[in-house]
Amino acid sequence: MIFVGGLPFSTDPSSQGSDTLSALMEHPFLVSVSNSLKAIPVRNFSVKEESTQERATKTKWVYAFQREYATVDPALVDFVGTDEATTCVGLVIRNRKNGMTSVAHMDSPDIVDMGLSQMLLLVVDHNLDAELEVHLVGGFEDVSPNFLKSCTGSESDAKLEGYSYPLCAKIFETLCTRREKFHIQTAFILGHNTRRDSEGNAFPIFNGLAVETSTGSVIPASFDGARCPDEIVRRIRVTASYEDCSWNGKLLDTYDTRTDQFRIASCCWTSRQRHTALTLRRLTDSEILLTCSTSPSAEGPDFVDNLRRQCEYLIKYPDWIETFPLKQPRVFERTSDGEWKRC
């Protein structure tokens, strides 16, 4: 059940997620919020830029990579967020009463149903009457809106409608069918999150978000230099999860809400992934973009560099057991100055 602007948002039980999505994109309340969000400058969370004095009272944040989610307690964490989203969507669910906040980096309609259940587990805490705020930032018009209107059923089945649109439609379709009370506060997606250059090429306006857990405020954000801990291993784990059937339909769980620790569960990579890494290492930057991205022209400047670092790690450590001895998780705890230390 969903609400917009404090009022119930009625949907036809037989309607598809795309119908709900279209109506919400034109809702005056959400249009106004999107216009206001455009005026907010992007906050860059960067460890390198903090002075000694700032480190003494350092802001504590938790970062979620693609296909990860994290549920945080406002008593332990100041901000939680994600970035690097082009056709992906950053989804926020926050309990108004206790401030418990979950953020996910959704990258496929296939993980929405189970992913929402994972996010809600600690946010709702068995209270179906909880008032839940929902924010979406990310996804853009990676195909022309005129093309969407002219799509036939067969074309849609072939996924010619792009990546962002079916993901956003699935999220709202699932929210509508669940029993919890969702208050849609932000829908900065698709047309609202699209800018075009002089040649008409589309790009996302914002690629990331952060939630201030004490207030629930959502701001555009970048975590360049602050995607920690264990950045490379977590990036590789995202890729490896696609070949691991135990993760089918699920978001990756890396953060322990109660202890404020990261616990990166073991994952295995195959000789095929090492072969892919060797192949990618021989490609040019533009070839890597075209091969590995759903939106090559919209990726950030460090997209290729991050992929190359992953490739070098896989080539250096072809056996995953070197990274996860005895299949044990890699555990990181927060130090007194806010850094992360391997346990």
Automatic annotation (TrEMBL):
GO terms for molecular function: protein-N-terminal asparagine amidohydrolase activity. GO terms for cellular component: nucleus. GO terms for biological process: ubiquitin-dependent protein catabolic process. This is Protein N-terminal asparagine amidohydrolase isoform X1. The lineage of its organism: Eukaryota, Viridiplantae, Streptophyta, Embryophyta, Tracheophyta.
